[in-house]
Structures are given as structure tokens and as C-alpha cells.
Write a structure and sequence with these properties.
The complex is a heterodimer of chains A (368) and B (285). A four-stranded antiparallel β-sheet of chain A has the order 1-2-3-4. In chain A, α3 packs across α5, α5 crosses α6 and α10 crosses α11. Chain A contains 14 helices and four strands. Chain A starts with a helix and ends with a helix. Chain A is 44% helix and 14% strand. Chain A has 368 residues and is an alpha+beta fold. Chain B has two domains: 212 residues, Bacterial phosphonate metabolism protein PhnH (Rossmann fold, 3-Layer(aba) Sandwich); 49 residues, no CATH class. In chain B, the strands form three sheets. In chain B, strands 1-9-8-5-4-2-3 form a seven-stranded mixed β-sheet. In chain B, α1 crosses α2. The termini of chain B are far apart. The chains are: A alpha+beta (368), B alpha/beta (285). At the A-B interface, α2, α6, α13 and α14 of A face α1, α3 and β11 of B.
């Protein structure tokens, strides 16, 4: 009987899981299971994205999430986030100063020369997007020779681990508002408190930091194109490793427990009047996320600026509306809800048909 | 558990927060209590809000029933029940409504009346009935506080002007205890009267939207209507004016699913599969 088959619950689910597992593994004779370290290293940007959207800095489990979800970014971020929610909160770090990041890349678009200099580092920015056909058949030897050759030709002179921040020099010149010390107090924890609007800036930043890259980009792009007017200048974009400090369990002294790869972007935008009758200054937008994901950090910085404007003067565009932005950038929420439409909706549809038929009958009757 | 997951999946801090939110929700019937809402290992929109309620309330002596579209065997119900069984060793699950202490459901309230020792948990996609007239949550909060439901009434009125019918089919706005209007989850209008003066506690969980609300036992729940346009449930009468019956158990009172069978005929069958089976047992012995 057709209907029971539609509801044919348990066995169908098990069968579907089997089919997905087959899809993951059916590479035939040349098939090799993906190595976790390979995912972490060679799918570097994908891996970065999953850690930031999953909201958990766990390189090994992020790689596992990518492997088991067949590379679906939304699913992989989701699996990592769900793992996170089983873990109790044991310790909290103090607010960290990113000046001490060990950098692999930092650039500024606002000045030709910045203290410490521009350091391009690994970037696709100026790469020609021509397919490199030679990689179709890359040998292990060629692959391993890259580092060997590169390091052989590199001068021994030490690159400094960290650099002064561009914003500090702008601030010293009085072009930026003073650091708001009050904002350094206890940040809002989005994993333990629901967003009830209006929310503090720290809640907005935390929400965007684990937001879905494409969603952030799309809303930020509306602002860039004219539904808003942030017109940012990237004062500094940096990628590197931030040492993480935790209080020592016995002495209470701050102790380095490890480091996280992260991307940080600070944008400077058009100036505005000072609320306390001081001189006008440029305004700031801030973006940061786990891993190496520059488009996300820039989008977030633009949205941070747009949202600060919206919180101050009232939103004039969607990207300036905290509810609009913050409740729609989470990939786990949005993909879950989009997927749920695939579930049975027999009952509600039955109810919909009842309304439509009744309305049709009434209108037919009135036309006769 | 062997895989390092806590009993009922959530950590104890998360359960405590949910229980506190439930108590608040019971104290203020119909008020949407915000809570932090953890990510669950199934999709947002698949019942994570209901599931968090179930997992926060479940204990060793509980017997759980999970239904979706009225059926215990619907894919999502099976999936949720398997997850509860996996993460809550020592509890029982059932498909018989009489045996259940905790019932999690999507889109239906069981046909048979619930008892005072049972809790019904409903999964909620949209917790706020006002969302159809006001997209901003901030503004809706003020409207709820002031019990300002005028725009909702205007929407109902405009429906009548345009279609001579209220077009809201499910998720019918319902006023709880004379103040807050809730979205009773996507139950059909047929189920709305069961919310009124219920023996059982009814809890609503919206995981993605991070809200919990409740209708305490014996609490008034009235669907929004006008004096001269009464609330009406789905109509299952045929062209001869006869109430359609379930083709399996013959019930002429239950909510029916309509579908086309393999011969191309339109047939009707109880949506509540447990009720239907029990009716068949009564008939056939």
C-alpha cells in the first residue's frame, strides 16, 4: 500500500544512511580514504571556514567533519557546532590583544608604508585564475619539493613575529576615537544567552564571527553596492596565530595554552561628530574569525560599521538593522530551516487545501 | 555513555537553563521565554526545540512517544526517537498514547484526550503569531506586552473582505489566559480546541528561534475570531453532506489525511496512526 511506504520510517532512514556512506566511499580500485591531515593541510581554506562557522577551534575534528560530510561546508560546520554543544564551559579567557599575533600576512590599504611594512604572505589576491593543468598529475616528489626549494632560496634574516598595529598610529594622531574601555568589560556570550534586541556590539561581533561566510558576504555586498554607505578603507588585515592565555589553575597567573589561527580586519570609514563635543574622527569597523578567511573578516568589518551606525541613528538599510543581519547570517540555522521543508507537511497541507477549497466553493457560488 | 556523551545529550547546565525557562513559561502562560538553545545534531527546523525540552525533562522512569504528522513511523519521528533512545539509557519508548508520560509531537495533538500525568511537547518553527504582520522581533515584543493584537485582527478582517473566509489554515493564533496570543505550532485548526483547559501540560519549543512557551493545565486557550465569524475547524464532509470516514478504522471523528491510492482514487485515513490502530483493535478484537 503506497501510503505506508511513504511513512516507512526506520528502514528507510537506515537505507538512506547506507546510500550516503556508499556515495562517500565508491571510488573503485583507485579509492583511498581521505587522510585527516591532508584535509587540514591541503584543504586549508575549507578547513578554516569550517572552524569559524562551527564556532570551535579544533583542527582535527574540523577535518573529520569535512570528511564525513563529503565536503559540504554547511553540514561540516553543523557537525562541529553540535559537538561543541555537548561540552560544558569550564574556563574563560580574558579579552585578548591581537597586537601579539604571530603573523603570516598583514596588509594595509590605507598607507603605502606602514610601521613594520606590508607583508603579502600566502594570498590568491594577485594570482591569475588560470587552471594549472600540471596539477592534474602532480607527483608526490614534485609536491614535496616545493617547500624544499623555497626554503633553500630564502635568506636567513628573521621576519619579526609580530608587528605594531596600523590603527595605533592613526589613534595616536587623533584621527580615530579613543578606545572605549567600558567595551572591554565582560563580552556577551551568544552560546549561553539568547539575543534579545537591542543587543550590545559584542553580541553582534560574536554572532558574525561564527556566521556563514556567504551570508555575511551577501549582506555586506548590499551595503557596498549602495544599500548603505560604509565606504570602508582596510586599515589593516592580518592573518596569523594568536597565543591563547588562560589563568593557571593553581597560581591564577595567565599562561599560554596554545594558539589559534585567525584573520582580523579593521576598516576605517567616514568620519562623524564626536558625541562628547570633541573633534570629529573616522569611524571603525571590526571583523575577526577563526582560520584564514579574509572575505569573511572584511564582510564582518563592514557589517560591524553598518550595524554601529544603525544602532546609533536607526537603520536605513537592511545591513544596518541588527535583527535583519544577526538573525539571518547563521548557516546552521538557515540551512536547517531550508532543509526542513523537505520533511512531511501532510497535515498542514491538508489544512491548506481545506481553506482553498472552501474559498473556491464560496467564490463559485457567488459567481453563479 | 561510551562515546562520552552525557545522559540526554545536553550538559547539565543546558538542562538547568531549559527547566528554569519552562517554569517561567508556565508562570506566564503564552509568554515566549527566550533561552540560549544549544545546537543539536539534527537540523534546525527538524524539532530541535521540542527535543531540547524532552531531553531536559526526561528521567529514568519516563516513557516517551514521538510522533510526526500524527505517525510514530514517520521518518522524522523515527529519527528523533532513535536519538532519544541512544542518549537516554534506561528510559522506555512507546507508540501507545496511554503508556506515554512524555509526548513529543510535530504538527498534531493526539486524538485521545491527554491525562494530567502526561506532558505534551510541541515542535515549533515560528513561535510568534505576530510575525505575519510584523517582521521585527523588537517591535513584536512591545506589541505582546501591550496585548496589542489589532493588526492581527485587521488581517483576519481583510481575509473576510477579500475571500469571505479566514484563510489561516494552521498555526491558528490563539489567545492564552486572556492575554498573550501564541502561535500554537503548525497543528491543524482541528487540534486547536484541545489546547483549551487541557488536563496535560503543553510545552512549546522553538530551537532555531530560541523560545519556550507553555499552556499550563486547565488554562483558557481561545482561537482568535469575531463574534459574527466563529472559529471553524477543517471540513471533512463529502458532497452528500456526510462526514468522511477513515478507510482503515471507520472513524468519523478523527483528523484525516487525504491521498490518492494506487488505483487513482482519493481516499482518507486517520492522521493519528496509534489512534487508528487502537480503533481497529476495538472493531476487530
Amino acid at each position: 500500500m503506497g501510503y505506508v511506504a511513504i511513512k516507512g520510517g526506520g528502514r528507510a532512514i537506515d537505507g538512506a544512511a547506507d546510500m550516503l556512506e556508499l556515495l562517500r566511499t565508491c571510488q573503485g580500485e583507485s579509492g583511498q580514504p581521505l587522510d585527516i591531515e591532508t584535509i587540514e593541510k591541503q584543504l586549508y581554506f575549507l578547513h578554516s571556514r569550517i572552524m569559524s562557522e562551527g564556532g570551535l577551534y579544533h583542527p582535527k575534528l574540523a577535518a573529520l567533519a569535512i570528511k564525513q560530510s563529503l565536503g559540504d561546508t554547511l553540514e561540516a560546520g553543523f557537525a562541529l557546532r553540535a559537538y561543541r554543544s555537548t561540552k560544558p564551559r569550564l574556563l574563560e579567557t580574558p579579552v585578548h590583544d591581537t597586537t601579539h599575533m604571530r603573523l603570516i600576512r598583514r596588509i594595509s590599504a590605507s598607507f603605502k608604508d606602514i610601521p613594520g611594512g606590508q607583508m603579502l604572505g600566502p594570498t590568491t589576491d594577485y594570482a591569475l585564475r588560470l587552471l594549472r593543468m600540471e596539477l592534474l598529475n602532480e607527483s608526490q616528489e614534485q609536491f614535496q619539493n616545493v617547500a624544499k626549494t623555497l626554503f633553500a632560496g630564502l635568506p636567513e634574516q628573521a621576519v619579526p613575529d609580530s608587528f605594531p598595529k596600523v590603527l595605533d598610529s592613526l589613534r595616536a594622531e587623533g584621527l580615530l576615537p579613543k578606545v572605549n574601555q567600558a567595551a572591554r568589560e565582560q563580552p556577551f556570550d551568544i552560546t549561553r544567552e539568547p539575543l534579545i534586541f537591542p543587543v550590545p556590539r559584542s553580541a553582534a561581533l560574536a554572532t558574525m564571527a561564527r556566521g556563514e561566510t556567504g551570508s555575511l558576504l551577501a549582506i555586506a555586498y548590499t551595503n557596498m553596492r549602495g544599500y548603505g554607505d560604509v565606504h570602508p578603507t582596510v586599515a589593516e588585515l592580518r592573518v596569523g596565530y594568536l597565543p591563547v592565555l588562560l589563568p593557571h589553575p593553581i597560581t591564577g597567573e595567565l599562561t599560554e595554552v596554545g594558539e589559534v589561527l585567525m584573520t582580523e580586519c579593521e576598516v576605517v570609514a567616514m568620519y562623524q561628530d564626536d558625541d562628547n563635543k570633541g573633534l570629529p574622527t573616522f569611524t571603525l569597523g571590526y571583523g575577526a574569525c577563526f582560520g584564514h578567511n579574509e572575505v569573511k573578516a572584511i564582510s564582518m568589518a563592514i557589517l560591524d560599521r553598518a550595524l554601529q551606525k544603525g544602532m546609533k541613528d536607526g537603520p536605513e538599510n537592511p545591513s544596518e538593522d541588527p535583527e535583519f543581519v544577526l538573525l539571518h547570517v547563521d548557516g546552521i540555522d538557515s540551512m536547517g530551516f531550508a532543509s526542513h521543508y523537505k520533511m512531511p507537511h501532510y497535515v498542514t497541507f491538508q489544512s491548506d487545501m481545506d481553506r482553498l477549497r472552501t474559498t473556491q466553493q464560496k467564490q463559485e457560488a457567488s459567481h453563479e | 555513555m561510551s562515546n562520552g556523551i552525557n545522559f540526554a545529550f545536553l550538559d547539565e547546565y543546558a538542562k538547568r537553563e531549559i527547566r528554569r525557562s519552562v517554569i517561567k513559561a508556565i508562570c506566564i502562560p503564552g509568554y515566549q521565554v527566550p533561552y540560549s538553545s544549544r545546537e543539536m545534531p539534527m537540523g534546525r527546523g527538524f524539532g530541535t526545540g521540542g527535543l531540547q525540552l524532552t531531553l531536559a525533562l526526561i528521567g529514568a522512569n519516563d516513557t516517551v512517544k514521538v510522533i510526526d504528522q500524527g505517525s510514530d513511523d514517520s521518518v522524522n519521528a523515527v529519527n528523533l526517537r532513535k536519538f532519544i533512545e541512544m542518549t537516554c539509557p534506561g528510559i522506555d519508548t512507546t507508540t501507545r498514547i496511554q503508556e506515554a508520560t512524555l509526548i513529543q509531537s510535530r504538527h498534531r495533538i493526539p486524538e485521545q484526550a491527554l491525562r494530567a500525568d502526561q506532558i505534551l511537547v510541541l515542535q515549533v518553527p515560528y513561535p510568534d503569531a505576530l510575525v505575519i504582520v510584523e517582521p521585527s522581533e523588537d517591535k513584536r515584543k512591545v506589541m505582546h506586552g501591550e496585548a496589542d493584537y489589532s493588526r492581527l485582527l485587521v488581517k483576519l478582517y481583510e481575509d473576510i473582505v477579500k475571500f469571505d473566509e479566514i484563510t489561516i489554515s494552521h498555526r491558528y493564533p490563539t489567545r492564552i489566559n486572556g492575554h498573550y496570543i501564541i502561535d500554537p505550532s503548525p497543528i491543524p485548526r482541528y487540534d486547536v480546541p484541545k489546547l483549551h483547559n487541557s488536563n496535560a501540560l503543553i510545552l512549546f519549543g522553538a530551537g532555531r528561534e530560541k523560545k519556550i512557551y507553555a499552556i499550563p493545565p486547565h488554562c483558557p486557550a481561545e482561537p482568535l475570531a469575531f463574534d459574527d465569524v466563529p472559529f471553524r475547524i477543517e471540513d471533512f464532509t463529502d458532497s452528500h453532506g456526510e462526514r468522511r470516514a477513515c478507510k482503515l478504522c471507520g472513524s468519523k471523528t478523527s483528523f484525516l489525511d487525504e491521498f490518492i491510492d494506487e488505483q487513482g482514487e482519493r481516499v482518507y485515513q486517520c492522521s493519528d496512526s496509534d489512534y487508528c490502530e487502537q480503533q481497529q483493535e476495538l472493531v476487530h478484537g
